[in-house]
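lol so apparently i was supposed to do this last week
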Amino acid sequence: MKRRNFLLNSAATTLALTIPRISVSKVNENYYKLTAESKKFKFGEKGNKKSNLWLYNQKSPGPTISTKKGTELIVEFKNLLKEPTTIHWHGIRNINEMDGVSNLTQPAIEPGETFIYKFPLNDAGTFWYHAHNKSWEQVARGLYGPLIVEDILPIGFDNDITLVADDWRLTKEHEFDEKSLGSLMDWSHQGRLGNWLTINGESNPKISLKENTHVRLRLINASNARILNFKFKNYSAKIIALDGAPCEPFIKSAFQIAPAQRIDFAIDIKNKDLMLFETSTEKLYPTALFPIEKTDSITDNKINLKNLKSWDNFPNLNQPEIIDIHMQGGAMGNLSSAIFNGEKKSLRELASKEAKLWAFNGEIGDYSYTIAEIKMGKTVILKVWNDTAWKHSMHLHGHHFWINSFEFGKIPKMIMRDTYLMQPGEKAELIFEANNPGLWLFHCHMLEHAASGMVGVINIDS
Ligand code: C2O
Ligand code: CU
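anyway here it is w/ copper (II) ion bound
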């Protein structure tokens, strides 16, 4: 199925006005101003070379947008880059024309243009925003930030901390490695992997906490392709939400977080320092340190996790729409040819001439590739088969899905998320109710994989 359907959004406001540069990101409770612009940034020690990053409001990560559930968020965004861009609000079950996918839900925002994003916040949780035009490059250069939608019912945390993790690829001079952007070697393997881990733009930051308090940590993996393995030391951490959506709480102090995923933790702080380590390499790599400040006072806040309510019930499985998605391609895969722009071509040719390497159901995907057309109200089962030699972080726009997840151990857990990490060979069923009309992407969030074919559109018809 091939379709060209650029829903050019006429209601959206593309202002020609020149708006003065304002450094304040929050104008009031629900009105934010963002820019995307290039900015010099230093990784690590003084003396290190400065990198040329692309950032929101000159910050890495971009400013935290934080507001209450049930309100409408307005973001006045100005593109000060030299190339077009858009912003996607990852995990928000958004209205389609505000989803921010360039050339699918809106035209790309040209250099110098302003675009107003305006949408209701119907779910509380941990989200993030990131560029969605050439995201493999724009996100790698730093275009992302956290979006927190606050609960209405009090949960009782004394402290709410967001940790945005990113894995940068730097040169020996500690400079952002521009030259390796677009390397076919990365694209055909796991994607662009880095060598420099940051939390909120810093290496091993210190974030102090008070003794005898209850803290909520919201962890976001903003890496292009890196699956991070973390471990908390000195404390047991309770997972309370996944990809924004509250789950049945469970203790898990060592865990994995794939690109674009979020995990919220509840931790009761006592008198020992809390430490976060990355555990992928042989040596524990210190990622963040939370020193404890002693106090005599004891907080009276009681944690009420019951006030974290599941967003949805499991959908009705009567007469579901079953969609098979066969993921193929990549290095060491079994895909020898695929359909690209209506023509069958060898993978060798597709790789060398078009930088296309991955496929869904034998077709190189892009925004004009329709995976399925679905009637509103239907329950959908995406039967996804990862027939490749690689892990993939599969993301659905506009909806969360239910998944019997193997991400937290051998015993599967039925959870709701918007991004699911699939193992090589894994077959998974992503179940959701098609209750949000529009053109929604389904893609791998290893952004190089999406750019080279692992992407398609699910069209939900109102
Ligand atoms: Cu966070 Cu289409 O992505
Ligand atoms: Cu992938």
